[in-house]
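tool_call predict_complex ligand=protoporphyrin IX containing FE
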Amino acid sequence: MSDASLSAPLSAPGEAQMGDYWELLKPRVMSLVVFTALVGLAAAPGEVHPFLAFVSVLCIAVGGGASGALNMWWDADIDAVMKRTKGRPVPSGRVTGDEALAIGLALAGFSVMILGLAANWLAAGLLAFTIFFYAVVYTMWLKRRTPQNIVIGGLAGALPPLVGWVAATGSFALAPVLMVLLVFMWTPPHFWALALFVRGDYGLAQVPMLTETHGDRVTRNHILGYAILLVPVSLALGLTPVAGPVYLAASVVLNLLFVGACWRVWRRDRAAAEADRFAAERRVFKLSLLYLFLHFGALLAEASLGTFLGA
Ligand code: HEM
Ligand SMILES: CC(C)=CCC/C(C)=C/CC/C(C)=C/COP(=O)(O)OP(=O)(O)O
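tool_result ok
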């Protein structure tokens, strides 16, 4: 077990503000996760009552937040060491490990139960599996053991669009599976670009990120490799019934931009990157966020267009 739960807080419990509990849920990262879930739900065929859609997306958001709190509970010891994370509520002592654990478990149970009752138990089971995968498989098991941690663990971040789709339809289909594959293949370049410029942090915390275990060159190769593998997945999603010309145009432009940006990162070495303070690596990280947001944004536009034209 991580010693996160054993560590004493640096300041007295009870000093936490609402903002600290909010931060525990990793709201910024989860915003994009929740957006992909919303699009999964909106792109699904058939009518979903707006209230049911709202409750379903809320449950996925709360489930995501729960898994964030469980991650912060378990990882408090390594978060305390890294510059980027040491101000988080648990390592800084504003929220105790026990509180984070209790909040994580309560919100996880609550979100799964409500989704099951409101939508269906297949969606609820998938949400429970997603929370389990992030909190247990990624955080507790893989993160400290293998540089492939985020490749396998990325499945947790990839499943929400499928949870949204299943909440709406009660069944699986090819389109949401391709959405999952898109986020799954996107996660490695998203994260490794960041790892190239916050590298020292992971070394300090002794987390075996690829940058630490295999160095910059291998990481740069992997970033470009995954960016290229993303192209057929992105285009294949464009051939399913949920996509149309808006998506296809966005897909072509975004893939050209993303592969181009990853190519620029690939062809240089650490010395060149240090010389311009990792400008190209920062660009890939920022572009990764735009890439995913606009892919799902285009699918949402197609779904809204379909509803509008069908009305
Ligand atoms: C195992 C998978 C992933 C890892 C290891 C990872 C890691 C990270 C890290 C370390 C950051 C830095 C900033 C922070 O801590 O807030 C970050 C930022 C971010 N990630 Fe990921 N990420 C993963 C998957 C995802 C997924 C699936 C999404 C959404 C679909 C996502 C969306 C974001 C967003 C929106 C930010 C920017 C947050 C901000 O503006 O501060 N990430 N990610
Ligand atoms: C609906 C649901 C249950 C969603 C879970 C989705 C999920 C897995 C989201 C992204 C994961 C994420 C924030 C990884 C950060 O890695 P890290 O925790 O190693 O990063 P850190 O160093 O910033 O803590």
